[in-house]
Amino acid sequence: VKFKGGKLPSSIGGLIHLRFLSLDDAGVSHLPSSMRNLKLLLYLNLSVAIGEPVHVPNVLKEMLELRYLFLPWFKHDKTKLELGDLVNLEHLWSFSTQHSSVTDLLRMTKLRYLSVSLSERCTFETLSSSLRQLRNLETLYLDFSPKTNYVGELVLDFIHLKELVLTVRMSKIPDQHQFPPHLEHISLFNCGMEEDPMPILEKLLHLKSVKLTFEAFVGRKMVCSKGGFPQLRALKIYKHSELEEWIVEEGS
């Protein structure tokens, strides 16, 4: 549905027993403050349109029953969304440190799925200290500011994490001990790594799938060694314009 003037009608706030609301691709640019009345919502999808900003009043903090929350990619204003009281959340999409405080994550101990966009003013160390409280986290998407080249320690050893997606500029991949010990799936996008990541990735013994896409690696030669990737089932290498040679040793 396309709403007149891009405004969701304030009468939506009258649906006080609503459990599920999806505005996916609805083209809404303004959400009404009456949404604070939807206190029984379990599922809320505010990904109204990719690339289009949206005004979100600070009403989400009152939806204490929420289990699934998809935040919009862009907001109109600089108002911070307060999410710290959403302690029942299990899935949180498009959380941005530009629009919300990273410390809000500290109380979301039931989170199993988290997608985070890290702005320049929030360091990875600050984010990491909050994520360490999320003992049930199984899937983590991390998108770093494209203007920031990663330097320093990128430690992601969250004990229960099974799937990791990284969009972060870095010249080389972290050492294997900096990754979750039981990681099964990893995706690397647009990293610009100059060193071959395979010698590290092949040592992550539980990996079942690896995706390297959109210039994740900008070198010319990639080598998969004998005995590496003992459980790998799927490998995707896509959009690597500099890659000229790929060696797969027998037994890899």
Automatic annotation (TrEMBL):
InterPro entries: LRR_dom_sf (IPR032675), LRR_R13L4/SHOC2-like (IPR055414). The keyword Oxidoreductase does not apply. The keyword Repeat applies. It comes from the Eukaryota. Residues 11-240 form the Disease resistance R13L4/SHOC-2-like LRR domain. Keywords: Repeat. This is Disease resistance protein RPP8. It comes from Arabidopsis lyrata subsp. petraea (Northern rock-cress). The lineage of its organism: Eukaryota, Viridiplantae, Streptophyta, Embryophyta, Tracheophyta.
